[in-house]
What does this fold into?
Amino acid sequence: MWVHDSVMRRLLPLLVLFCLLVCASTAVARTTGPCVDGETNGPRCSIWEGRVQWVDDGDTLHVKVGSRSWHVRVTGINAQELTDYNSRHRAGECHAVEAADRLDQLVKAAKGRVRLTAQDVRSNSHGRQRRSVAVKLGGRWRDVGRTLLAEGLALWMPNRTEWAWNPRYSVLAEQAAAAHVGIWNTSACGPGPDDGHPLKLWVNWQSDGTGSPDGEWARLRNLDAVNPLPLGGWALRDAMRRQYRFPSGTVLAPGGVLTVHVGEGIRDDANLYWGLDKPVFDNVDRSRESGDGAYLFDPQGDLRAWMVYPCRTTCGDPNLGMLELGVSPRGNEFVSVRNTGPAPIGMEGYRLTSGAHTYAFESDAVLQPGESLRVYTTRDSDRDQPLIKGWSQIFGILRDKGGDVRLSTFTDSVLACVAWGDGTCAGASNR
It folds into this structure.
């Protein structure tokens, strides 16, 4: 249709106004502010407000923001999975329904009003916007992630993009674990197989500087010296639900040790293999306060053993001050560890680190009072003796011009450090 120029000139302002009104109505209002309430010196975030349309599960919900519907994944937590998402008759893994119901309860108490926060507006998880979610209760914003973690209804799942919440969230997870609430109650799902059987779990999350999964492993020790523990059907996983299921017939002997290697290998009575071509357990990133966890679930959904790292709260070690490091960085280089205390020290659960390289002590390594153990940075056939060990490196890793070596727990608490040349032990105090 042809329109006369004079008519077009009269219509143009109206068209512009119409466009502005339409654009304004469809735009998503966004402000900026501190990512975490009260942390004015911390990172800043983009902030939106919206109305919840419905809750999917304990960590996912649909939110109307402006004229748009967002599928939102709550930052920093991971609840157990539902199998039936209908809010009238939810069903799923142990603790999953409780988490979804609690999130629903918080949203309804706030009459659906929520605040969404993100460090990176593009942050997403499988197409869902990754956001910190808060509800308005009593005139104040309340972080739903903090509530679910504190009540033991979710695991801490750190994120390196949305990292502002990591420090507080990890502390809440540790406190809930110490109190054995929710998912941290090892018999919350009912009396399970071998209920109360004592276990210890460690995870070697740093793959010795290679980026290969072969250096990653999780180790289980049966603390019961009399009774074996059948593990068939149990599951080992990280915070992101990457999971290894123990084969039928797997048994952990009384007082025994079983290691699950992330990479490939040939199974035997003491070693199982996940068979993956990439690492599973995330490394500690102190700049973003990030880490991960290893979790052992029995077939009915009870969390029976775990290790969350890095440690934030109760990080002391009974052998702090009892182990002394020495280093010879040139020639046939080695690191020495000496027991300066009055009693034998089992070295299981400790590791040496130098840069990206890691050596984990074997499960049977013990130092008597006054004894020293040498770990050479190259491995030869004669370096597999009680007090002489070899690192897995083909070439030396200790720089002549300087560096440091640290003795720490697998939760990244440092017990001792030695530096030479331009190296430093700054920041290596026990956390």
User: Anything to note?
Assistant: The longest strand covers residues 44-57. The two ends are 75 Å apart (CA to CA). The mean pLDDT is 90. The CA atoms of residues 375 and 389 lie 5 Å apart.
